[in-house]
Amino acid sequence: MSFVTVTDVFQSYGARPIIERVNVTVDEGEFISIVGASGCGKSTFLRLLLAQEIPTRGSVSIAGAPPATEPGLDRGVVFQRYSVFPHMTVRDNIVAGESLRRGWGRFFGAGAKAARARADDTLARCGLDHVADQYPATLSGGMQQRLAIGQALAARPRVLLLDEPFGALDPGTRLSMHDFLTELRAETSMTVFMVTHDLHEAFKLGDRVLVFDKPRWDPHDPNAYGATITYDFDARNGGIPFQSLKENTHVLQAN
Amino acid sequence: MRLINLKPGRPFAVFLMLLPFALVFLAYAIGSDIRLSANPQDKLLPAPSKVWETMVRLVSEGDRRTGRILFWHDTWASLKRLGLGIAISASVGLVAGLLIGLLPLVRSFLAQFVAVLSMIPPLALLPILFIVFGLGELSKVVLIVVGTLPFLIRDLSQRVIELPDELLVKAQTLGASSWVIAIRVALPQIMPRLIQSVRLSLGPAWLFLIAAEAIASDLGLGYRIFLVRRYLAMDVIFTYVIWITILAFLIDWSLRAASRKFYPWAQEGL
Q1: What domains, with CATH codes, occur in chain A?
Q2: CA-to-CA distance for A191 and A3, rounded, in angstroms?
Q3: Is A78 in contact with A149 (CB distance < 8 Å)?
């Protein structure tokens, strides 16, 4: 039974099709990298997964639930920028991952104390415990993204969506973020979708790499057709297939 | 060295800062001296010493008839009107700004209406306010509210709309309801903007206050200025104008200090 099911999804803005006929199923715990040229609907696809947008046709279903109409607790997200609340301290940002769902958006009394203790554990795991009382603006880009991931995970989502999370980071920080993400995945075995421009990153982190591209191209009207998934690579074993005796792959199977 | 790279040292910067004040004072003293030497009875530019004497008299001596020190009573009456008007404007503006900025339904319902309302010149409404609310305190406070509220609503709702979409989506993925997004995400982030907008509104607020007091009042800074105008009492007018300037500056400064203290994360532009 697949965990995330995308069935025949079309999305257009006005008359302009962005993505068309996207069908994909993802098992629980898979790490899906999404690559493609700029303007090929990668981020649109992620917004559809997030339920920030509703597809014009087709449906996105997570864990068998009916298609969501707005973002909710089952989906966690980290954007390239603006992913943490600038007016909360680093610790409060993590606490917010658990507290925003409550009636007043905060914990009171003993609950607040326990939540702060849990947040400090999370911060220690993210390597941010020494800046717990600072505001995010004082952190480096890599630390802010670690915080954003920690905050998203504090809410315990079913699916984690990353929209070019490391796009603005320098190469060294990017590598340490890869290690950080790999560690977290080993602990939580969460289903992850990551949009990236970095092919190396996509194959390094992903179990599968989905490539978005426009299969039809009208040179007189480049916007006439939308993009879809043109390749679905098996990225395990460094992207090289047939590395094990009994190959267990979704590639070359009919959708 | 290019002029754009020439930076004053600390003492020189302080000197430069004080220089225009000193120059204005000097120009006034010279002008006053020229006029007074031609006509010792001149009332237009009283000598600085006379202004100073008037100042001391105004702030320390009571009224001959009632014994009250009118200066402080005027100040208190004006500040009360100003504070009340601004407080009402700020709180209504904050709530309306949040509603318009966060809820597309309310935005469709009210945004254009407020935009049209803000085009009405508030002073043109003053006669209506005097007719409807009488000549007492209420009409003056209402004038300040009418004058500053549309700007505050428009400014704050715009700030809420400008909040990055990512933050609102993020809050939703953390399970926040509209109410929680309003009080935990949007409200704290526009509080510094509210203080900033209030600082900008204080100029118009003073304008409306003094206008209302000038037309119908029996106490207040604006009332006193327009009253003594009849006697060409420039020394009193100067005292009151300087005092209003100091008050406005202090209010502005304390709002800025409050913003820095309570919202240290919002560094830019404060």
Answers
A1: 4-87+135-239 (3.40.50.300), 88-134 (no CATH)
A2: 9
A3: yes
H or E segment to which residue A26 belongs:
strand A16-26
Q: Do B176 and A105 make contact, defined as CB atoms within 8 angstroms?
A: yes
Task: Give dist(CA A70, CA A38) in Å, integer.
Answer: 25
Measure the CA angle with vertex A208, ends A238 and A185; round to 5°: 85
Is there a contact between A100 and B174 if contact means CB atoms under 8 Å apart?
A: yes
Cβ–Cβ gap B169/A77 under 8 Å = yes
Please report which helix (H) or strand (E) contains residue A179, including its range.
helix A171-188
Q: What is the CATH number of domain B72-262?
A: 1.10.3720.10
Of B164, B180, B188, the CB nearest to A82: B164
Residue A191 pLDDT > 50: yes
Token pair for A194: 């990551």
d(CA B40, CA A64): 95
What is the number of alpha carbons within 13 Å of residue A27 lying toward its C-beta? Answer: 8
pLDDT at A213 over 80: yes
Amino acid at B192: P
Interface test with A, best of B103, B174, B270 (most A CBs within 10 A): B174
Please indicate whether, in this complex, the C-beta atoms of A101 and B175 are within 8 angstroms of each other: yes
Our measurement of the distance from residue A19's CA atom to the centroid of its chain's CA atoms, rounded to an integer in Å, reads: 18
DSSP state of A227: B
CB atoms B164 and A81 under 8 Å: yes
Instruction: Locate the chain A residue with the closest alpha carbon to B262.
Output: A87
Phi, psi of B55 (to 5 degrees): -55, -50
Q: What percent of chain B has pLDDT over 70?
A: 99
- In this prediction, residue B116 carries a pLDDT of 93
Q: Is B115 on the interface with A (CB under 8 A)?
A: no
Residues of B in contact with A97 (CB under 8 A): 174
- 10 Å CB burial of residue A149 (0-12, 13-18, 19+) is buried
